[in-house]
Amino acid sequence: MVVKLDHIGIAVADLDAAMKVYTDVLGLKSAGVEVVEEQKVRVAFFPVGDTEVELLESTDPEGPIAKHIEKRGEGVQHLAFRVDNIEAALDEMRAKGIRLIDEKPRYGAGGARIAFLHPKATGGVLIELSEREA
Ligand code: ZN
User: Fold this and answer.
1) How many Å apart are CA 72 and CA 77, to the nearest integer?
2) Which of 34, 53, 80, 127 has the most CB atoms around it within 10 Å of its CB?
3) What share of the chain is helix, strand, coil (3-state, %, to 5)?
């Protein structure tokens, strides 16, 4: 069901400043910047090997990333695992009694269909399941 580590999500206060670390320091290339209205974020993806780094900047002081930074500061916010079928994955989680944040998939960056598991069910790590093409 889990295919690979799709990406690592990092909460940042200033996307343009944070992008410089990945371009100027690490020499990576951004796959582009995208606003995801539904999640109140502006994101940049940096493909690296078989996975990606996702930088997330809040577009709203009430958004989940703004709240995360308020409580915990900037830094790693979630791990996203690629699944081949997100409905089947969510059914499997429910059958295992895992608490979910999203009962139904919603749309994330890059047209992915995503759902979050509750960090209380996963040892404090916010886990995103993501189904997308290629
Ligand atoms: Zn993500």
Assistant:
1) 9
2) 80
3) 30, 40, 30
By the 10 Å C-beta count (0-12 exposed, 13-18 middle, 19+ buried), 4 is classed as: exposed
CA distance linking residue 116 with residue 14, whole number of Å: 24
CA distance 12 to 73: 9
Please state which architecture CATH assigns to domain 2-131: Roll (3.10)
Residue 55 CA, ligand 1 centroid: distance in Å: 9
Which residues face 79 on adjacent strands? 8, 127
Calculate how far, in angstroms, residue 15's C-alpha sits from the geometric centre of ligand 1: 15
pLDDT tens digit sequence for 6-27: 999 999 999 999 999 999 999 9
